[in-house]
Sequence to fold (280 residues):
Amino acid sequence: MNKRSMIYILMISLFTLLLSACGNKAASPTENPTENTPAASATQNQSEDLGVLGKIKSSGTITVGIEGAYPPYNFFNDKNELEGFDVDLTNELAQRMGVKVNFVATPWDSIIAGLLAKKYDVVISSMAITVERKKKIDFTEPYYHSGMQLFVPDSSDITDPYKIKGRKIGVTIGTTFEKKGKELGAELVTYKNDNLCFQDMQNGRIEGVITNRNLGARIIKEKQYPFKPIGDLLLKDGAGIALNQNEEALKNELNKHLADMLKDGTYEKISLKWFDRDIR
Fold:
């Protein structure tokens, strides 16, 4: 065999080995064979379509932002446990969704920022539905209706809630109560929560408090403060579950369960427990 023939044979052999290697690589399984299967792709697409609701269902937990300083709606009891109307409502909703609840206690003035940063899935903390808030976030249908009330000491000379210009009035920071107080020209003093407002009024540092009618009445009754509501409601509003915008699947799911609770008597039972009446 001459030299040229030997080179030709070697080249043929090398080419055959290369073909064999390529064939084996094509036939080998992928590192994650399930990732590209139709079932896996369908599950992933379904989860993406459902957005936050898909994440909640997948993890088995709904994370809820709540203030924890707004009795009787939501507050920490003597055992440092969360309870209240909002808490009972949330637990019932979670049960109907088939998931657990993870509450994240958050100061009121940063609770919307936390939702936007996705630190929790929703906020269930007696948040009033307003046009201004809906520019940033979304809401379910109202789960209760209430109103804004001015409370003053029994000995106060304030007789009209609309005539408080220049008067020193306490409000919780970041609330619709603060906005209303500014509109009326009051000299506002802001607090982290309503309990602090009423404490300062008891100590004579402020002349009145603007807050939720039901909440104010509850605090006065529990603490036996010598305070009273003045005049008509400053504003009637509805509170909803807050969620991020474009989460229609989650909003529809929550609205469905809320509607069912209103129909089957569960909502009324929870409401009577905390307010002795149906506050829907």
